[in-house]
């Protein structure tokens, strides 16, 4: 069980700058079967010296540069990590410059010269400094670089970046030449002193220069090498802008480039067979092989996903079980009036919904239509509230599963009323040439109802509420009309000097929006007798009216009908008298018989008289040998006249019963 090193381990070769550096392994123990995961962490030792890109560095600094100016220096690289990596820089003693050591985001160090005392070319034309890089090992390892500084005449204006830090993100495996960022600086000088050249700062690591390229004229930073998220997630790039003056001015900026992970690594499956061949009598649950899955990508790109296939086990579900839709009548055909909304939590075809209008009422299919894909309900025709107020239908929502599942949703469409019907006058009828004349006697007092205008409105509710106003009259002071009932009253007592004929024009208006109206013309005659009215009507009738004799024929018809009715009633009376005489003679012929077996009762319904209320009727019960019998008056809805004669007489009302007088005979006993 010992784990041995089989060859020399070089941490920098295995892991580079990654820390910690670990190697993973798995150990399988048999009988009993157990799996152990392990990792060997390769610890770093200080076996590498810091290294500068070159052994010398040259700077040109104008004597006019003010104190506090900073000048980046080339950074040293140390492949060791942790405390063994590059930790600090040291600068040789001098009267003009100090060293400022900065730390990048990734923890690496870089140094900048800071001018503490202004330079004087006349006093000293050049300076020689030594920069030392030290790591944190014990003992520390170091590297040196010679810095040669030339003091030159002044360049008035140095370039200035429009921002000190730029941020950009780029996907790993981005093709070479892809634009990452564009930096920009300006210089107020003219000529060469104002021309700007962009370049990497001296302390930009060599690895960065291999991965990115900078256009010296445009300041465009592009991808040059192959980026790998798994190797480095963030790059901190230092750039500078320098003019072309004799003593060039320099400006510095920083670009932070974030590398975005893409799913560029396939999962690695390691299969360790521990039990092969498998015996046919192996017990259920026996481990046959061990599977180990790894993925170098990060976050979701590194998960192993198990797909669960969908089964159509969910019926469509509507947001509402029923819908009530209100549509104004006289609508434009083809408008959408409702969207039936439903969802299905299944996936794919099982969640594809279709909408169907069930044809319960055959008229619904001619009036409504539904979009099969999105459930939009359309109105195909124009509706009329006066024709039909409500439509009921059922919408079926079905998924595309096998077998499909469905849900039914009820829809009720209510047609709301518009004021599209004017009042219609029923009396007096407006579409006839016959003149309707109402009669009122002279001297009639105020408040007497003369006639009534009858009208209807086919609309509903407030749209059908009719108001009546007197629009025009022969004498406006004589008559008034009820605002809501159309009744025409006398406004004052009729005088002898009032005109005999009056024509009223009544305006009928509903209360819809817009208001619709109609008018009715009423003729009123002031006369004592109908003859005067008829005479007046004859006078006012048009000479060329072919029906001018209609009144005469109506009166003649009334007289003829009255005469026929009189003759009929006289004939009935004579017939009744004749029958009464026959029964009288029959009675006289049977008087000699004292006792006779009573015959059956005869039920005779009396003729209702004009003064008898319609809910009363007379019943007469006679025996063959009756001398005197009772006429029974029965109350409304009494079940039978065969009850107690005394009770019936007691319940009768005065004046509504009579006695029929005959010859007194022996009446049958109640038992008989």
UniProtKB/TrEMBL annotation:
All residue ranges annotated as the Cadherin domain in the record: 53-161, 162-269, 319-425, 432-544
Residues passing through the membrane, by range: 552-575
Topology relative to the membrane: Single-pass type I membrane protein
CDD domains, per the entry: Cadherin_repeat
InterPro entries: Cadherin-like_dom, Cadherin-like_sf, Cadherin_C, Cadherin_CS, Cadherin_N, Protocadherin/Cadherin-CA
GO terms (BP aspect): homophilic cell adhesion via plasma membrane adhesion molecules
Keyword line: Calcium, Cell adhesion, Cell membrane, Glycoprotein, Membrane, Repeat, Signal, Transmembrane, Transmembrane helix
SUPFAM superfamilies: Cadherin-like (SSF49313)
Highest taxon, organism lineage: Eukaryota
GO cellular component terms, A-Z: plasma membrane
Molecular function via GO: calcium ion binding
Entry-linked Pfam families: Cadherin (PF00028), Cadherin_2 (PF08266), Cadherin_C_2 (PF16492)
PANTHER family: CADHERIN-87A (PTHR24028), PROTOCADHERIN GAMMA-C3 (PTHR24028:SF236)
Protein name: PCDGK protein
């Amino acid at each position: 069980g010992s784990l041995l090193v089989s060859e020399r381990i070089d941490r920098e070769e295995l892991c580079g700058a990654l820390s910690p550096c670990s190697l993973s392994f798995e150990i399988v123990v048999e009988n009993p079967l157990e799996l152990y995961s392990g990792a060997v962490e390769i610890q770093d030792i200080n076996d590498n010296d810091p290294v500068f890109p070159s052994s010398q560095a040259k700077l040109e600094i104008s004597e006019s540069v003010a104190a506090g100016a900073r000048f980046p220096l080339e950074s040293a690289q140390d492949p060791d990590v942790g405390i063994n990596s590059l930790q600090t820089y040291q600068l040789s003693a001098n009267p003009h410059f100090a060293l400022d050591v900065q730390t990048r985001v990734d923890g690496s160090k870089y140094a900048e010269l800071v001018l503490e005392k202004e330079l004087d070319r006349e006093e000293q034309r050049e300076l020689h400094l030594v920069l030392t890089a030290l790591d944190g090992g014990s003992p520390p390892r170091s590297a040196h670089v010679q810095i040669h500084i030339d003091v030159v005449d002044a360049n008035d204006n140095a370039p200035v970046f429009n921002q000190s830090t730029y941020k950009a993100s780029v996907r790993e495996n981005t093709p070479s030449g892809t634009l990452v960022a564009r930096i920009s600086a300006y210089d107020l000088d003219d000529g060469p002193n104002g021309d700007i050249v962009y370049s990497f700062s001296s302390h930009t690591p060599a690895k960065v220069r291999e991965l990115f390229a900078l256009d010296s004229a445009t300041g465009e930073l592009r991808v040059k090498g192959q980026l790998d998220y798994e190797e480095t997630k963030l790059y901190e790039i230092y750039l500078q802008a320098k003019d072309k003056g004799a003593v060039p001015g320099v400006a510095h900026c920083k670009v932070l480039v974030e590398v975005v992970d893409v799913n560029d690594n396939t999962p690695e499956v390691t299969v360790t067979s521990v039990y092969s061949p498998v015996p046919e009598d192996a017990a259920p649950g026996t481990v046959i092989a061990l599977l180990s899955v790894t993925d170098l990508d990060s976050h979701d790109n590194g998960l192993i996903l198990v797909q669960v296939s969908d089964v159509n086990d969910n019926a469509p579900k509507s947001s509402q079980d029923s819908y009530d839709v209100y549509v104004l009548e006289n609508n434009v055909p083809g408008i959408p009036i409702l969207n039936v909304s439903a969802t299905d939590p299944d996936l794919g075809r099982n969640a594809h919904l279709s909408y169907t209008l069930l044809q319960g009422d055959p008229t619904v299919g001619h009036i409504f239509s539904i979009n099969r894909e999105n459930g939009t309900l359309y109105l195909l025709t124009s509706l009329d509230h006066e024709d039909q107020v409500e439509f009921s239908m059922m919408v079926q929502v079905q998924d595309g599963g096998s077998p499909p599942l469905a849900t039914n949703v009820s829809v009720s469409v209510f047609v709301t009323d518009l004021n599209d019907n004017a009042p219609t006058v029923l009396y007096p009828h407006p579409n006839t040439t016959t003149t309707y004349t109402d009669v009122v006697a002279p001297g009639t007092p105020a408040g007497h109802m003369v006639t009534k205008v009858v009208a209807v409105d086919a609309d509903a509710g407030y749209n059908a509420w009719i108001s009546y106003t007197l629009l025009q009259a022969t004498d406006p002071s004589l008559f008034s009309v009820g605002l809501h009932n159309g009744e025409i009253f006398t406004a004052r007592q009729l005088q002898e000097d009032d005109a005999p004929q009056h024509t009223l024009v009544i305006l009928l208006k509903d209360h819809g929006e817009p208001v619709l109206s109609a008018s009715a013309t009423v003729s009123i005659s002031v006369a004592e007798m109908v003859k005067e009215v008829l005479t007046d009507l004859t006078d006012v009738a048009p000479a060329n009216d072919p029906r001018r004799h209609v009144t005469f024929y109506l009166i003649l018809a009334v007289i003829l009908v009255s005469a026929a009715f009189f003759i009929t009633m006289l004939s009935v009376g004579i017939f009744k008298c004749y029958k009464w005489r026959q029964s009288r003679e029959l009675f006289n012929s049977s008087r000699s018989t004292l006792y006779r077996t009573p015959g059956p009762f005869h039920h005779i319904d009396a003729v209702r008289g004009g003064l008898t209320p319609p809910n009363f009727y007379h019943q007469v019960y006679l025996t063959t040998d009756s001398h005197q019998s009772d006429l029974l008056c029965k109350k409304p809805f009494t079940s039978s006249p065969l009850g107690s004669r005394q009770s019936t007489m007691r319940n009768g009302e005065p004046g509504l019963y009579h006695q029929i007088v005959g010859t007194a005979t022996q009446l049958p006993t109640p038992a008989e």
